[in-house]
């Protein structure tokens, strides 16, 4: 069953359909939350809160095909809310294994990338999380963050440039010439 059919079924009260949507989306949403919050505990809490809110408000989703962007918006809002509540220095723990198993790169590169993402400011970290961890398109990110698509594009470019700098510096530390 595809996501649209699951959403439509969940909107009719089918808990199993919603559970299937959670299973399909939890990893990417956790990666998004983790990249924003820097703590697997806080990311898990944010995701849990987001899924509870999504279940409570699933009937308000007008376009079932936009479920992924809708969920990402809820997760990002929960993350920002959590950061506002704590207003503390976030102690970043070891990266959870479920984020280390990225298909395109090995665990060492994944760890370096995640560490570099932590070096970005909040706005750029959210953009990177939504684009590369949640795989949203520019217009979906604009909708989630309620900013113009042009702003999304420029933040992606700046964030990628900063990540290149951070990764180059990290590489130089690891492999000095």
Query: Pairing-aware structural class of the strands and helices?
Result: mainly alpha
Largest sheet: none
Question: Helix tally?
Answer: 9
Task: Estimate the strand proportion.
Answer: under 5%
Order of helices and strands: HHHHHHHHH
Low-confidence segments, given as residue ranges, are 88-107
Q: How many discrete domains? A: 1
Task: Quickly give the CATH architecture.
Answer: Orthogonal Bundle
Distance between the termini: 53 Å
Helix content: over 70%
Mean pLDDT: 83
CATH domain topology: Rna Polymerase Sigma Factor, Chain: A
Radius of gyration: 17 Å
Main CATH class: Mainly Alpha
Q: What is the number of strand segments?
A: 0
Q: Per the principal axes of the C-alpha atoms, what is the gross shape?
A: globular
- CATH-assigned homologous superfamily: RNA polymerase sigma factor, region 2, helix turn helix motif
Structure description:
By secondary structure, the chain is mainly α. The protein has one domain (3-174): Rna Polymerase Sigma Factor, Chain: A. It is built from nine helices and no strands. The protein has helices spanning 3-11, 15-37, 40-57, 67-86, 97-100, 107-118, 122-133, 138-145, 149-174. Helix 1 (3-11) packs across helix 2. The radius of gyration is 17 Å and the shape is globular. 33% of the residues are buried. The model is unreliable at 88-107 (pLDDT under 50).
């Amino acid at each position: 069953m595809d996501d649209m059919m699951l959403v439509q079924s969940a909107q009719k009260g089918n808990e199993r359909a919603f559970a299937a949507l959670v299973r399909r989306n939890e990893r990417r949403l956790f990666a998004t939350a983790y990249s924003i919050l820097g703590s697997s505990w806080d990311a898990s809490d944010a995701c849990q809160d987001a899924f509870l809110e999504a279940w409570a408000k699933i009937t308000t989703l007008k376009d079932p095909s936009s479920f992924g962007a809708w969920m990402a918006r809820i997760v990002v809002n929960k993350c920002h809310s959590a950061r506002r509540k704590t207003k503390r220095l976030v102690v970043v723990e070891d990266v959870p294994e479920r984020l280390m198993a990225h298909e395109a790169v090995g665990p060492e590169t994944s760890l370096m990338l995640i560490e570099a993402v932590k070096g970005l400011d909040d706005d750029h970290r959210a953009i990177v999380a939504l684009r590369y961890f949640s795989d949203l398109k520019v217009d979906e990110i604009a909708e989630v963050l309620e900013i113009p698509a042009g702003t999304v594009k420029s933040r992606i470019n700046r964030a990628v440039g900063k990540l290149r700098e951070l990764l180059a510096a990290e590489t130089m530390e690891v492999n000095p010439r």
